[in-house]
Amino acid sequence: MKSGWRVPAMLLAVFLVACSSGGTPRRVSDPAASLQQLTVEADGRWSIELRLQNYSSVPMRFDAVSLAFTVEELGAGTLAAQPALTIGPESADVVTVAFDPSPDARLLLAGRLADGRGVQYRLEGTVNAAPTDRGKVRDYKVKRDSRLSPVPGLPGVLR
């Protein structure tokens, strides 16, 4: 009778070890970038809060960002930063970037803010990132179309 329990018990033990050793699968996904907030400074420059999103199941180190930035189809310039930021799995963080927009984009945004209207924007370029545990640094292509709206009570701020 005792020997009859050994085989099922051993199989159960092997099954439990096999199930527990796998852990969470390591998945590296393309990151994303978007504007969380744009503030027009007194000197006409823009302060941009750039949101970097890590969709991977492992922490990622974000080393550099280079994004062509357009506002209502007008080229505003290149949004470039070296955040040197580590973002946890399936999380996001924000980096503030000083930005000197093109004269046309500056004028367009000033007019929209004066009218209390928002703007459409596009970010297109690369985010340089790598898994922190192991992994090669690479450039991920990013393209984002979205919209910013004026924030009531905060002049010169769009979200």
UniProtKB/TrEMBL annotation:
Keywords: Signal. Residues 1-20 form the signal peptide. It comes from the Bacteria. The keyword Signal applies. This is LEA type 2 family protein.
